[in-house]
Write a structure and sequence with these properties.
Elements (H helix, E strand, L loop, with lengths): L1 E7 L6 E6 L3 E6 L7 H14 L1 H4 L3 E5 L7 E7 L2 H14 L1 H4 L5 H22 L10 H14 L7 E11 L2 E10 L2 E8 L2 E8 L5 E5 L7 E5 L4 E5 L4 H21 L21 H19 L7 E11 L4 E10 L2 E6 L6 E5 L3 E6 L10 E5 L4 E5 L4 H14 L35 E4 L2 E3 L5 H8 L16 H6 L8 H20 L9 H8 L4 H12 L1 H7 L3 H9 L5 H9 L13 H17 L9 H11 L2 H15 L9 H17 L1 H10 L2 H10 L8 H14 L2 H13 L1 H5 L4 H13 L1 E2 L11 H6 L8 E2 H12 L4 H32 L6 H21 L5 H4 L6 H4 L1 E2 L1 H11 L8 H12 L7 E2 H13 L2 H10 L8 H15 L25 H10 L5 H12 L12 E2 H14 L6 H26 L31 H14 L11 H16 L11 H5 L16 E2 L1 H9 L2 H8 L5 H19 L11
Parallel strand pairs: 22-23
Antiparallel strand pairs: 1-5, 2-3, 3-4, 4-5, 6-7, 6-12, 7-8, 8-9, 10-11, 11-12, 13-14, 13-19, 14-15, 15-16, 17-18, 17-21, 18-19, 20-21, 24-25, 26-27
GO biological process, one term: system process
Keywords: Calcium, GTPase activation, Membrane, Metal-binding, Phosphoprotein, Repeat, Transmembrane, Transmembrane helix
Membrane topology: Single-pass membrane protein
């Protein structure tokens, strides 16, 4: 690359001159290329250890003048090819021009100006590219990574770090490169080279630890080995980036979501040193995730920035120190002291933002007012003017939901709508008005219009009742008012919350403090439960920003049938059947609409068992729309991946719970592990939030705490349950006894303060014994969980979740592999080890295409809902790469053609993708089939659909070339061949009917056997294969000639193929005569019908005949047709045609030497009768004739009956990337090859 000219005082230090002329010198750095001796080893070592290779490329070009001792560095290159191109350009364009200058200063000025002009032009052309955001040093490091490890340009480097890699007991100092898809390490110390590449998708464990042997190290584990890295400059930063990259890889395995760079990030004011654009992207992603988790915001919320400040809290009459966060839709505040104060202000609620007067007590204050008359005062802001301007910018882009009449589905970007998110409705907002230079006012729309719009009801499917309020309120509205002590306590709770609302505010802008948490732990009143669930979960904000969305979803989903809707209908009446709200059509219909709407919104999840139980509880306290948005918050934010097809999130939290049990209850953990209880109980506890294992009135209090605290309260209560039953569990001898103890304990967790009539718990009725255990107050259970296990922190749980997610997803992948291998064992002849290796290679090819590009999208090629055999699929390009690496039939340049044909043959549903089962089917036929099976596969590869129409046209052109006829004489009637291209599949219905009529007494087992037999696919025989016409036969000959290029008996095989091809040509001519009615024969016997054409073949049955018998029958057939091999026709045109075709049969591929073509080989087939320039449309042969002809040649029989081993092919395929990396890093013009 051209660089801005830099002065070089010592041109010979650490460099070797390779080319020179009077003005320029091309130099190579010592330690690169061939030779160099001890000095080269030392320089190479210093380059790796000190990272000078990232600043100094191994090649450079210097500008020199005769009278000056100063050199100017004008170009550098990472390879000899690159630097040579620059050198040639200088010699061609500048050398002759500068030779006429008289003054050395003029030469230097001219060259420097020319180089600067080239650089400016290159920068202008590349100014829109992402790479220009990176520093020059970082781009050099990225080029070095690609060169060292053989990575394509699509592989993006995120960051690189200096560290030591422990190989055995010896540390190797080098550089760790973290790319989007790989972890790479390179070290070169005194001639010893270490290269390591680990795909992130293969990482099973990633942890940071400190031991005596590995101080402050990072351990990266895969299925087969462990790698240790230490001596980092900043180990925390490195480990966080590793976690992010591994998380993205796990998400790719789980949902097939490839990494997409965030191109909407604001560009930095200046290029940051050693920080890539991707590293900025990852840092922004991490901040966004923490921000969204802290304030329960939606996944599309993006943090714009944060700053330190103070917030005036009127309830405490003090300024609270914390951080202010600004995003595209919210202004949020979190106190530095935990649980002191938290605030969320949606921009849609903001009416006025103004800068107040500064003072020594209140410096740089900003006041924000909302539409519900709440005022918030922030102070001690460092850049107040910029902050106010950013808020005003976001306010202008915030759509006003009170006045917008735009369809709500046009404002969002979920799966039900293909449109992009629309944030350009700022024209609906009245303009901002400035009453003073320090005052910014945002005028809200009229309250009357807002009321009308807010009361606008969405229309639902007519004829179905709609729950416009919580089902519990509907059933309580007719009951008489209860004045008992429990009811009075409930009213006292309501009054406490009302006092709290008056002091701390109500709605989304409420101050959230430790007093709020105390009220939640004491139980939320039934009348306020739905409102507060929406508030604490963040569902309130999402519902407010998408008005009418649920109604539209209900209308779209009504009447649609899918697997999810079938499962929903099956579980509707299993959802809290003991509650009277779900014993009638109103509750059932509401539950159906909510679940169906969510399945329509998120097809990736659809419906999962346990969703019905949770949703039914939500409907008791919320309207349908509120319950829907609470379900969205649960499935997509608060319980991520819980309700997908493999309940990955629940399995992850199950692993976290095991780790917590080991940390807090070590004695119980060991005993429970021996019994295998933890994995059994935790899934049901977590998936339903204890709703399925605990009385409803008690479990709903845990749901109150869950919506406020998150998943940590579920872990706390689960640990408290185990702690309370520790003695009894330690005395258990089996899993069933432990399950009974825990089940009875949870059945007797009661809520003594509830005012609702008791709801019978089915589990309690089934597990109650003669002496029920004592009752446990749920409030005492919650209190004890906070006292004993309240030290749990959400960030610690997230860290533990990451660790478990790696284990769970990789375990699921191993389970999928074992399932695939078991399923394929009966359908292929490969061993278990071979199938496992093939599955890994197939999956690796699929994963590689996900992040290095493919002709089809990743989502199309991976569907987790399909059976394991069909989940991973590859397209033709990936298939051709695997075929070339693994298939035994390689045909040189013809390999890609054969691969494409096999792909079309295996792609039965014609979706352009092949799954693992289809891939193994084709590969097993080539490796383990007998001769007949292999020839049958080869035969099918030259018939439609394997043979495409374009290839048939190329066959016609090839025939033209070898027959030396005029092209205008060629044409064929393809309609006459269509009957030959169809596979005939017949079911044995008639035979089964006859058997049934003959039987006298038949029981149900007989009919089951008959039904199974009818549905059993009929095995294809050689008689079922269609006939092959002349075009297809030409293609078959081409394939056979290319198939034996690397065989030791190459010449014998070529001669055998020539003989077989000539014989088959004559057989086709005989068949044509019988097909045409045999008018030219001298016999008086009637010609056989076309259906008996195959009788010419020496094979009358499925079993092949012997070679001698086949030859005798062929001679008799030729004699009957008056086509003796030694008596060619007298027509010169026919002789010409026959000779040319026979010549083609032997030399069409160009691989048969001319001296091997004997006279006999040229003259056989001379009895063909066809026009010279047109392929004979009546000519055809059968597979039986092809098989019989090949059986007459022992070399061909030996070739197709030879057993082949795939182990060597698989080993070569696995080593292919390593070889490519070695070639890339040790080529003659780049790096010297060193022994490790």
């Amino acid at each position: 690359m051209w660089i801005q000219p830099e002065e070089v005082l010592l041109a010979g230090a650490l460099w070797v001159s390779e080319r020179a002329n009077p003005f320029f010198v091309l130099q190579r750095r010592r330690g690169h290329g061939r030779g160099g001796g001890l000095s080269g080893l030392l320089v190479g070592t210093l380059d790796v250890v000190l990272d000078s290779s990232a600043r100094v490329a191994p090649y450079r070009i210097l500008l020199q003048t005769a009278d000056s001792q100063i050199y100017w560095n004008i170009a550098c290159g990472s390879s000899r090819k690159e630097i040579t191109e620059h050198w040639d350009w200088l010699e061609s364009n500048l050398l002759q021009t500068i030779s006429i200058f008289d003054n050395d200063e003029d030469i230097t000025t001219f060259v420097k100006g020319k180089i600067s002009g080239i650089i400016a032009e290159e920068n202008r052309l590349k100014q829109d590219e992402e790479q220009e955001e990176d520093s020059g040093k970082f781009r050099e490091a990225e080029l070095k990574m690609r060169k060292l490890f053989g990575m394509p340009n699509e592989e993006k480097l995120v960051n690189y770090y200096s560290c030591s890699y422990w190989k055995g007991r010896v540390p190797r100092q080098g550089w760790l490169y973290l790319s989007v898809n790989h972890l790479c390490f390179y070290s070169f110390l005194l001639g010893k080279e270490v290269t390591l590449v680990v795909p992130w998708t293969e990482v099973t464990q990633l942890e940071k630890n400190a031991t005596l042997l590995f101080p402050e190290s990072v351990r990266v584990s895969t299925r087969h080995t462990e790698h240790f890295f230490s001596v980092f400059l900043n180990i925390n930063d490195t480990f966080k980036l590793m976690e992010q990259l591994a998380n993205i890889a796990m998400r790719q395995l789980l949902d097939n979501e490839a990494f997409l760079a965030d191109r909407s990030l604001p560009k930095p004011c200046k290029t940051l040193k050693n920080v890539s654009a991707l590293k900025r992207d990852f840092d922004a992603r991490a901040k966004n995730e923490r921000y969204r988790a802290m304030f329960r915001l939606t996944q599309d919320e993006r943090l714009d920035g944060h700053t330190d400040c103070t917030l005036w809290t009127p309830f405490a009459k003090m300024h609270v120190v914390g951080q202010l966060f600004i995003s595209n839709n919210y202004i949020c505040f979190n106190s530095r002291e935990e649980d002191l104060c938290q605030l969320i202000i949606p921009l849609r609620e903001v009416s006025i933002v103004e800068k107040a007067d500064s003072s020594s007590v209140l410096p740089c204050p900003v006041s924000i007012s909302t539409k519900n008359k709440m005022n918030f005062l922030f102070a001690n802001l460092k850049d107040r003017d910029f902050l106010v301007q950013r808020i005003s910018d976001f306010l202008q882009r915030t759509p006003d939901s009170w006045t917008s009449d735009v369809s709500p589905l046009a404002l969002i970007g979920h799966s039900v709508c293909n449109s992009e998110p629309c944030f350009c409705l700022f024209f609906l907002i009245p303009p901002l008005t400035y009453s003073s230079p320090r005052h910014l006012s945002f005028q809200a729309s009229s309250s009357a219009g807002g009321a009308e719009s807010s009361q606008k009801e969405r229309h639902y499917h007519p004829g179905l009742p709609t729950a416009s309020q919580g089902l519990l309120q509907l059933y309580h509205q007719d009951t008489a008012e209860d004045l008992g002590p429990k009811a009075m306590k409930e009213k006292m709770k309501e009054e406490s919350w009302n006092i709290h609302f008056s002091e701390f505010g109500r709605g989304v802008c409420m101050y959230r403090t430790s007093r709020t948490r105390d009220l939640v732990l004491n139980g939320i009143p039934e009348r306020l439960r739905g409102e507060l669930w929406l508030l604490f979960s963040g569902a309130q904000n999402e519902m407010a920003s998408h008005p009418g969305y649920y109604g539209d979803l209900v209308e779209q989903a009504m009447g649609l049938c899918s697997l999810a809707t079938e499962e929903i209908e099956r579980d509707l009446h299993r959802s809290m059947p003991e509650h009277r709200a779900f014993q009638n059509e109103m509750g059932i219909a509401a539950l159906r609409r909510v679940l169906t709407a969510y399945a329509h919104r998120n097809p990736g999840i659809g419906y999962c068992q346990a969703m019905n139980i949770v949703t039914s509880v939500l409907l008791l306290y919320c309207t349908e729309e509120e319950a829907f948005w609470l379900l969205v918050a649960l499935c997509e934010r608060m319980l991520p991946d819980y309700y997908n097809t493999r309940v990955v999130g629940a399995l992850v939290d199950q692993g976290v719970f095991e780790d917590l049990t080991r940390a807090f209850l070590p004695l119980l953990y060991e005993h429970m592990q021996d019994l295998g209880v933890i994995s059994t109980i935790s899934l049901s506890w977590f998936l339903t939030l204890f709703l399925s294992v605990m009385p409803f009135d008690s479990a709903v209090l845990l749901v109150d705490c869950f919506f406020y605290e998150g998943i940590k309260v579920i872990f706390q209560v689960a640990l408290a349950v185990l702690h309370d039953n520790m003695d009894a569990l330690l005395s258990c001898n089996d899993e069933g006894e432990a399950m009974t103890i825990l089940g009875r304990y949870l059945d007797n967790v009661v809520n003594k303060q509830t005012v609702s009539p008791p709801i019978p718990h089915l589990h309690a009725l089934l597990t109650s014994g003669d002496e029920p255990p004592p009752e446990i107050d749920v409030f005492d259970l919650i209190k004890s969980s906070y006292e004993r296990f309240g030290s749990l922190r959400s960030d610690v749980i997230e860290q533990m979740r990451f660790k478990q997610r790696l284990k769970v997803i990789q375990s699921l992948e191993d389970t999928a592999k074992r399932s695939v291998v078991r399923a394929m064992m009966t359908e292929s002849a490969f061993s278990i080890e071979e199938l496992e290796e093939l599955y890994c290679l197939f999956k690796s090819q699929h994963m590689t295409s996900c992040y290095w590009g493919s002709t089809s999208s990743a989502a199309e090629r991976h569907d987790p809902s399909l059976p394991y055999l069909e989940q991973y699929r590859i397209d033709p390009l990936q298939f051709s790469q695997l075929y070339a690496a693994l298939a035994p039939w390689t045909c040189g340049g013809h390999t890609s053609t054969l691969s494409a044909r096999l792909f079309r043959l295996l792609d039965q549903n014609q979706d352009g993708l092949v799954n693992f089962k289809e891939f193994i089917t084709g590969l097993s036929g080539m490796y383990h089939g007998d001769m007949t099976e292999k020839l049958k596969l080869l035969y099918k590869l030259h018939l439609p659909p394997a043979l495409s129409p374009e290839e048939a046209e190329s066959a016609l052109e090839a025939a033209q070339f070898f027959t030396e006829d005029e092209p205008k004489g060629r044409h064929t009637d393809k309609k006459t061949h269509t009957s030959c291209f169809q596979h005939v599949v017949r079911q044995s219905f008639n035979a089964n009917l006859l058997l049934r009529a003959a039987a006298e007494v038949k029981d149900y087992r007989y009919y089951l056997r008959m039904w199974a037999k009818e549905n059993e696919p009929k095995k294809e025989t050689i008689k079922d294969l269609p006939r092959m016409n002349q075009e297809q036969f030409i293609e078959l000959c081409k394939t056979l000639y290319n198939l034996f290029g690397e065989e030791p008996l190459e010449q014998e095989l070529y001669h055998s193929i020539a003989t077989v091809a000539s014989l088959l040509l004559r057989i086709g001519e005989v068949g044509k005569k019988f097909t045409n009615g045999g008018k030219k024969t001298e016999t008086a016997a009637p010609a056989p019908p076309p259906a008996q054409t195959a009788s010419v073949s020496p094979l009358g049955e499925d079993e092949p005949a012997e070679g001698a018998s086949a030859e005798a029958q062929m001679c008799r057939a030729l004699a009957d047709a008056q086509l003796e091999p030694g008596a060619p026709q007298t027509s010169d045109e026919e002789i010409k045609d026959d000779t040319s075709v026979s010549s083609y049969s032997m030399v069409s591929s160009g691989s048969l030497p001319c001296e091997d073509i004997t006279d006999e080989a040229v003259l056989v087939g001379g009895s063909e009768q066809r026009r010279g320039s047109v392929l004979d449309v009546d000519w055809s042969i059968t597979f039986e004739q092809v098989l019989a002809s090949l059986l007459t040649e022992p070399p061909l029989v030996d070739f197709f009956e030879r057993k082949m081993d795939i182990q060597a092919k698989m080993a070569a395929c696995k080593a292919q990337r390593a070889v490519e990396r070695q070639t890339s890093s040790t080529s003659d013009h780049e790096l010297t090859q060193h022994s490790t």
